[in-house]
């Protein structure tokens, strides 16, 4: 499949790949990060950070017209030792992991009533995941969740999004020194849902943070997974998997800010697209600041376009302010499952639908295996099969 | 006994200025157990013949018939042809990233045989076939054709030939790009399949070199979209000595 032909970023293969020219993360933003929605102008759609997003489908989240008129059913399964609190916005843990970087994130921050803080005490090693089930029941909701993971604690956190609704909610991670966190966020919304969220992870010294973002559903899903480090030895792995169907817009905008020395990051996002007007956007920003000597980073985005009519915009961006690093690289490739591959597999007796399945399974398999949470892996494989069943 | 009959086959491809006819009436009958070498200069339509038989969508059949034991091959989808027993070893096999050789082989064998091969015997079968082709076991875990050298790709094609046991094997320039050692290994693989007597082989080649290893029963000279001359193995010797000049000149050249 053309995916591995390593079509360089900027090439077109069925979908389209756009590459940022000379832009910097700072100049891309229409306003500096802020908790206050009033600090952001209402986007008109031509701004760098909004130019791929269909504003008219955001149900007013971006322009202040969305009102908190909806409901979302939340269920938290917290293993023993984990505390769950409902707090006000003046709680010092709320917003500590990072400031909102766009108007919707700030709108969410300005609009939530109570934040949920889920804490894992220091040195507590959980054997069961913390599970948060969020089921949209229609209308607009705002939210804020903080996961406060103490030093040397270990936790797996799974947040599931299902149902329908318009949801703007930010998720913070305060990852203590030496702690290990795996965070899985599944966007399995109904096809009418709108979901915008900023994930801020602030990593302590020697902390390990693995984020797995899985997006299948929704009309528009726009997520900002972001990582910053507060001490050396931090290790962030950001994995993502999306399956974009006809008419869906799925946008993942990542930032890893290497602001201290000797930290690692690895970003791998893979997506498959099928159907008319399926649109996936991937923005991968990695900053290596002058102080961040010894940084080791790699980011990759791969897209597999299964049918005509789908579009991919993939923009890797690496900014390096010091040469004293271990490694830095990025790659983006978008390819299509083409007639030649189909012919080859069919010429070996494999029917067309089975051939397509074989290729997509293979495309995602390696990534799924890296998740390391068995039941999530199995669910994803089942979900991928389901998406393939629905394939045109 | 399986028989592939090609009668008055005409094939076109879409070109910039409309359809261009490449095959202009090919007649050829291949029976199980026979080996036919089709030889011809570049551009004569040899590969078009191979891909048309396998059903590549790029080629449009504009006339003629192809039957396998009386069944209309041209009516079949690509995968149906393969399951009916037609195998094409490709000159340029494509990469299929994300799909391991072992997964691919098993999926293919399951499709061709109509049931999944028993795991234990299958593993042994693949392992032994790979050993015979001097392929490293690690090969099975690599993605199909991804990063394969030219020789590895051809060995992989012949590995499939050995495992899938077709009735009719079409080898499209399997010899091109191979060094002498690889040519010998690949040829031995083809010969093992031929020796079963259960395959009819259509060996398409530009050079006579491979015919030192694989002895054809019939040699056909292909020129200008049709068979210009047929004979026994001695015709290959004549081509070796004289080249294709007399077929591409003399007014038949395209």
CATH class of chain B: Alpha Beta
Report the order of strands and helices of chain B: EEEHEEHEEHHEHEHEEEHH
Number of helices of chain A: 5
Which regions of chain A contain 5 or more consecutive residues with pLDDT less than 50?
Answer: 1-23
Task: Give the CA-based shape of chain B.
Answer: globular
Q: Helical proportion of chain B?
A: 25-40%
Overall pLDDT metric of chain B? 93
Family (chain A): Belongs to the iron-sulfur cluster assembly SufBD family.
InterPro entries (chain A): Fe-S_cluster_assembly_SufBD (IPR055346), SUF_FeS_clus_asmbl_SufBD_core (IPR000825), SUF_FeS_clus_asmbl_SufBD_sf (IPR037284), SUF_FeS_clus_asmbl_SufD (IPR011542)
Domain SUF system FeS cluster assembly SufBD core (chain A): 135-363
Protein name (chain A): Fe-S cluster assembly protein SufD
Short précis:
By secondary structure, chain A is mainly β. Helix content of chain A is 14%, strand content 42%. Chain A has one domain.
Question: How is this structure best described in words?
Answer:
- Chain A is mainly beta and 392 residues long.
- Chain A has one domain (2-389).
- Chain A is built from five helices and 16 strands.
- In chain A, helix 4 packs antiparallel against helix 5.
- Chain B has one domain (31-248): Rossmann fold.
- Chain B contains eight helices and twelve strands.
- Chain B has helices spanning 46-54, 78-84, 101-113, 119-132, 150-164, 180-195, 234-242, 245-248; strands spanning 3-15, 18-31, 35-39, 59-68, 71-72, 86-89, 96-100, 143-144, 168-172, 200-205, 218-223, 226-231.
- In chain B, strands 6-9-10-3-11-12 form a six-stranded mixed sheet, sandwiched between helices. Chain B has a four-stranded antiparallel sheet with strand order 2-1-4-5. Chain B has a two-stranded antiparallel sheet with strand order 7-8.
- The mean pLDDT of chain B is 93.
- The chains are: A mainly beta (392), B alpha/beta (254).
